[in-house]
Batch of 2 targets.
Target 1
Amino acid sequence: MVGIPSRHKSLVLLAGVVVLQVLLLAVQIRRDSQGRLIRVWTVGAVSPFERAGVYGVGRIRGTWNHYFALQNTSRDNEQLRRENDTLKMQIAQLQSKAAEADRLALLLNFHKSHEDVPMIGARVIGASAGTASQTIDLDRGERDGIRRNMGVITPDGVVGKVVEAYQGTSQVLLLTDKDSGVGAMLADSRIQSPVGGTGEPLLTMKYVANDDTVNIGQRVVTSGMDRIFPRDLPVGTVAEIKSGNPFKMIRVRPAANLERLEEVIVLLTLRPLELKKESAPANPQSAAAPSPAANAAGPSQAAKP
Amino acid sequence: MNDAFDLRSSEMHIEVHKFHTGAILAALILALFFQAFVPVYFPRVAILDLPLLITIYFGLSRRNPSTGLLLGMAIGLVQDSLSGPTVPLGLYGIAKTVIGYLASSIGARLDTEHPAARFALTALFFGLHQGIIVLTRRILLAQPEPWFNVHLAIAAGINAIVAVFLFLLLDRLRKPS
């Protein structure tokens, strides 16, 4: 024990007595909404140590968990990776289903708005094996009423026409195929000219005279002259214009996304069709019927001028 | 124990006084009684702080800091007890503990028998006592209290004057050296 010098004993006694009385005061005084003063002081004195303790324990625990207790981390990491992959796959599937639902909804709306027109939805199940042709295969065939030369569309625009119909499947020649074509016209000026494929993403509109005024962005719609498609179905928009001799060289961007087709509509008739004007996606400006001779026209005959 | 002895640690010859048995207790009881009951009939008398004067006197006379602070503590706590519920125990106790200690410490070093010294020391201790109370109220109790006003100055003067005569009266309680 360290002895207190006698000259300081009274000072120590003074300090002790004063402190005791201060504590006595604290026990009696009640602060508004904070309880007795002794409690306020006690909490105020203890809480920094509590905070420090919690902080220290948290740091120690964090250090231990993050640097030492890692025996399960690798396994957990692997499991989380697997779960992540599974979830990514599920998300992709759900996104795909959602997109499919949107597309089907569009088809359904189109079908409802043209209930008088016989048509059937079909799913694309295959495509041409080589680059020499631009075709797709549908999961519908003759037993569903599909025949050769029937028109194939989407709510966005013309896709092509059926070139082969089998029992349960059918083959469609896309507009972009170099042997394909459709009777078309400029929507505003009503200048008619067939639109054909080139084997490339863009179509070509060959027989527009140099004197005719054509602007980039103009809409190109079906003319009905091929006797396959009704008039005023969207074909595409003018993308490039070059002067030629004697006709302009016009490139048309297809309205339908022919590179990513998944569901299409097959027009189940070989007779001239007339679509309602209010059909939103197709949005024909007029609905005149093509010639009844369409039944006899083959794909190339109907498409090519 | 001797009735009186000299502090010879310094050059000055300072005498430590002893009192008749029960003199301190009787003086203390009388002072507290006076402080507690006389103002009921004579409110102006409340300006006097007789327990403080008793603390100062016996502190200066006994000249033992430990005894002085314990005496001050006892007087202060009793005064707190008699001051009603609005005064927490310890308010006067702390102040008088400090005053008792300081009075004893100063009394051990200075000759405090002269009336002028007693007047000055009493006025000083009164101010200090009041300062400790205000400090305690402000810091510990969060109660607003003015540090100084004219009333306190007057009270310090009156208490100092009364102390001169009271201390002469109390000197009669001393045992002859």
Target 2
Amino acid sequence: MFAHIYVNRLKCILKDKQIIFWTLMFPILLGTLFYLAFSNLSSAENFSRIPIAIIDNSEYQNSMLKTTIAYVSTDSGSENKMFEVTLTDEKGAEGLLKDNKIKGYILLKSDIGIKLTIKQSGLDQTLIKSFLDTFSQMNSTFTRIIQSDPKKYSDPSKRTELLKSSGYNSSILLEKAASKSKPDTTVNYFYTLIAMACLYGGFLGLKEIGALQADLSPEGARINVAPVHKMIILLSALAAALTVHFAEILVVLAYLIFVLKINFGDQIGFILLLSFVSCMLGLSFGAFVTSVVKKREGIKIGILTGASMFLSFLAGMMYVDIKYMIIKNAPIVGYLNPANLITDGFYALYFYDDHTRFYINLAGILIFTALFCIGTYLVLRRRRYASL
Amino acid sequence: MQVFKAYFLVIKKNLPQMFIYAGIFLALAVMISSLNKPTPAGEFSQSKIRLAIFNNDTKSQITNELKGFLSKNTEIVLLEDNNEKIQDALFFRNVEYIIRIPAGFAESLRSQKAMQIEKTSVPGSTTAIYTDLLINNFINTTLRYVKFEPLISDKGLAENVKKDLEINTKVEMKSFDTYSGNTLSIVYYFNYLSYSLFAILILGVSAFMMVFNNVDLKRRNLCAPFSSKSLNFQIFLGNLVFAVCVFVVLVGFSFVLYGRDMLTTNAALMCLNTVTFTFAAISASFLIGNFASPNSAPAITNVVTLGTCFISGVFVPQQFLGSTVLSVASFTPTFWFVKANNEIGSMINFSSENLFRLGGYMVTELVFAVLFLVIGFFVAKKRRVTKG
């Protein structure tokens, strides 16, 4: 009997185009849109050489600035290439700045020293200024050292030795990566997307519970008079829904990982486990809402959609900083949000070195699932219908 | 005017759904404009990256000097020294650079065998390169004094380094065209408005058309004693009044939110741009209304609005989108609407050349309007012939 109901429920679900759209096509579509919109966002913070111009005059040609710039500009063989330099006159530089071809231009004049001209403030501009500051500050250091013992530095060899120390020593900083994975914030959007897709599995729960209750659908009335234990009916229907839902989530995951190349880390087993329990959570969430809310179907769908979206919003689907604000200021709210538990589970697998946080999330998901299941069961058990 | 009245009966029934779109939009607009503090124009403001310092080497003048120097040039974030908290903060960019100064660091500087400072950053990012520059500059300056003036006291060393690092490069701001005051918020408001406007129009128009395309109702209407000309005119009028209402509510709110800042030529141009976009959106809604069925309407609304908005730069600015995405997006009116808005926002020179270009964008939106309308009529005609 179990197999009979299971197979037929499977067919019913697969023929429901609306359900398949919202639980499978919509996440894929949204994932594609996220990908199109966010793929350049993470590379936007990557450093790319800053285009600048320098006013080409005799002061510049004879200055130490020229050697220093040469050391960090594209023409040099050095690794610390910071700038893409154009040498031009003042008029040309202004034109380049106006057309956004350069971020700023540098003028060196004996009466005013170094002057940087920019159009707007920003990190690139700050970096150019900081570089020029460094240059002036180094000169000040040399002057101060020479003044402390002018006699000693009147000897040219001593002077050369001093100036040689302008070479850049950058070995003082030792990079220690925060994690084995890149701190790429945009992946969180895709994790919340999976969370949303799992919660959208609630539509399947809604459909199945609706199909089992005699007062909600004619199929429900028919099934209720069948000589089968209610538990078997319920379990077989939910098993069918879970099969479809898990298969859908696997398709969405495969699409994100293999087609869009979103990084989920490399712990495949844990990812599958998390996806599976998240599917159970979504399904039981829908079943719970359906059995508790005694209103027409449209309202139930509205509640499911609204709740899934709101919870995903809190998990950072529209604005990733929301998730961090919650983690930081009210972690308990994060743990009470099923969408955040799922998102955070994927995040923990991606970014953390150990599994503590992952297991906490997993436990949270299982607790929620159990609560939803018990709630549904309490509402649905021993239901009798005097009239329909 | 029965049809006209019926039009608004249908709209009234669907108001709650439309309120959700309008409400979320307006709430977000309020939130964003309160977050977006206008930046003072015409003055250079240094970008300050978010830095966390863990100092294990407290009792020394030079480390204190380093901390002082960094707190002047960056925004110091206080962070709990806990691996998970640090990882969270870095992933969500609450902090962009973390340094750990080892015990005995100052001593090691004095003896010219500087210990390494452990740093954690976003690899390859501009913020990392900038902060590297800052820290290396401090250390190199210190090392120069230690090397060439080995007898200098700790106090003298700290003072000299401080004096050197206070030297600043002159920065001149050239303002050709920069955002000022609230303009950036207003541009964002209008860009995002396109999403809500489009969604509400599709919802309303397709809801009405689904009712009126019902075959039984259509047959009943065809034998009613008024001309199809009058029927079509009333529907047209209904669409127009509906569109005007939505326009007034959404655009009107910008005047409430931004007040005087809306009384500029830029804002007026954005309103005009919104008028042309509304035409395109209402024709698109008419076209969609001809396809939609009650089951498919929500799916189509979501796909069309989210799809066009994501690729056209509503949610993520156009500058972050790839060129392929943008060229696909240029086949939607939303793209031209957003492009025009962005240009209007940064415009200070209303030359005929600039206005002509803007006019071109708006005409493009109107061409889309006509195109959708023609296809819509074609589909409607075809349906009339086949389904009677």
